[in-house]
Predict the structure.
Amino acid sequence: MTVIKCIFSVSVWAFLLAGSATLASGPDKSGMEAACLRTAAKYFIALDNADMDSFVSAFTQDASLDLAGTKLKGHREMRDYFKARPENRVLFHHMTSALIEPLSDTTAKGTIYALFNGSVTDGGKVANQYLVTAIYYDDYQIKNGECKITNRRMAPKLINPIEPYNPTQ
């Protein structure tokens, strides 16, 4: 079994998203690992940009998504859930570490560490901010060189409210 661990930086992000990653692993599994890392990154980027088409395309049609107890099944439930969220909520994810483990020629599992900043605005001013540290546990399906999430479970480890910035204090 091949195992890979990457710490992400801006240059690695660009390299992976360009679709031409050569990672330190056996030649038979490196393409699978790179494809699944791109899918993990695609999830966060699409979510941060409220791009629901790109977001759901990271998943198989019947995929499961568990967001700390909120359980969604399939593209429709995922779209409906995120459509119902307030438009004044802003997210910015930082994918910090990822471990992709190929299980077969068509399946893999992943553990993705991420931090994300969230904020809610009110009349253009930040009304509430928070920082979350979370681990995402993924199951992937690989078909025709494309990796899709079949199951993702988010386990928040730390949720920290942040006081709004006040330049007069």
The mean pLDDT is 80.
